[in-house]
Recover the amino acids of this structure.
C-alpha cells in the first residue's frame, strides 16, 4: 500500500538558517505530493504541491521537487524565520489509493531568534 | 469562496459519555469529506471518509462512527467514549472532481476524555 516517511523531529534551527525536511514515499500509482503546515492549535493548511515527476512546488520561500527516481519530495527553505515554527506534514494522494490522502508522521520545526 | 467549520473547538468529556462533533462545508457541492485524528505528538490517522450522502467508509475499527445526513454536513459520533479517544480531530474536504487534489481542513476539535 501507499506510505509516506519523513524525518523525525523536532528540528531546531536559528533564524536565517537553511532548512531541509526529508520525505520519501511508496506508491503503486502516480501520486500527487503535498506539504502541509500546521501552526499551533490550528488545522492543517496546504503549503505546496506537485502533481508529476520533476515538478517543483513553491510557496512562501519553501520549495520541494518531485523526484520519481528517488521517490522523494524533500522540503527546503533557504532562510527560515521564527514565524516558520510549526509542524510540517508530507502527504500523497493517488487514484489507486482511492479517495484517501496518506500523511507522514509530521516534523516539528522550532526556529530560534 | 469555500469555507469549512467544525465544532466544538474544545471538549472535555468523562469516560463512557457520548460524543458528537460536527463539520459543515460552505461554497461547494458534492465534496468528498474526511475525519482525521491526530493523537498527541503523532501524525494524522484517517478515520472515515464519505463520497456522498449516507455513504461512509471506515478506515479503522473502533467505537467511533460517522454520518453524512446532508451533502455538506459530516458528523463524528460515539456512544461511549474511551480514554484512548482523546486527541485532535480534524474534518477536511476535497473537490470531488479532483480526486488527487489537496485537502482543505477545518480548525480542529480538541477532545480530552477523563
Amino acid at each position: 500500500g501507499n506510505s509516506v516517511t519523513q524525518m523525525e523531529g523536532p528540528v531546531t534551527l536559528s533564524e536565517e538558517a537553511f532548512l531541509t525536511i526529508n520525505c520519501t514515499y511508496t506508491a503503486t500509482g502516480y501520486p500527487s505530493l503535498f506539504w502541509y503546515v500546521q501552526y499551533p492549535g490550528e488545522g492543517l493548511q496546504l503549503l505546496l504541491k506537485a502533481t508529476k515527476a520533476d515538478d517543483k512546488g513553491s510557496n512562501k520561500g519553501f520549495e520541494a521537487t518531485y523526484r520519481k527516481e528517488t521517490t522523494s519530495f524533500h522540503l527546503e527553505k533557504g532562510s527560515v524565520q521564527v514565524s516558520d515554527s510549526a509542524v510540517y506534514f508530507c502527504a500523497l494522494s493517488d487514484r489507486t489509493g482511492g479517495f484517501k490522502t496518506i500523511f507522514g508522521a509530521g516534523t516539528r520545526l522550532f526556529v530560534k531568534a | 469562496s469555500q469555507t469549512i467549520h467544525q465544532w466544538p473547538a474544545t471538549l472535555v468529556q468523562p469516560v463512557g459519555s457520548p460524543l458528537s462533533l460536527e463539520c459543515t462545508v460552505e461554497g461547494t457541492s458534492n465534496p468528498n469529506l474526511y475525519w482525521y485524528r491526530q493523537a498527541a505528538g503523532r501524525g494524522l490517522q484517517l478515520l472515515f471518509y464519505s463520497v456522498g450522502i449516507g455513504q461512509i467508509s471506515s478506515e479503522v475499527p473502533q467505537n467511533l462512527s460517522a454520518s453524512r445526513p446532508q451533502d455538506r454536513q459530516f458528523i463524528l459520533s460515539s456512544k461511549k467514549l474511551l480514554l484512548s479517544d482523546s486527541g485532535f480531530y480534524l474534518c477536511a474536504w476535497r473537490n470531488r472532481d479532483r480526486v488527487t487534489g489537496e485537502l482543505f481542513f477545518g480548525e480542529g476539535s480538541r477532545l480530552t476524555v477523563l
Q: What stands out?
A: The mean pLDDT of chain A is 93. The interface with chain B takes residues 31-32, 34, 36, 41-46, 49, 51, 89, 93-95, 99-106 of chain A (CB under 8 Å).
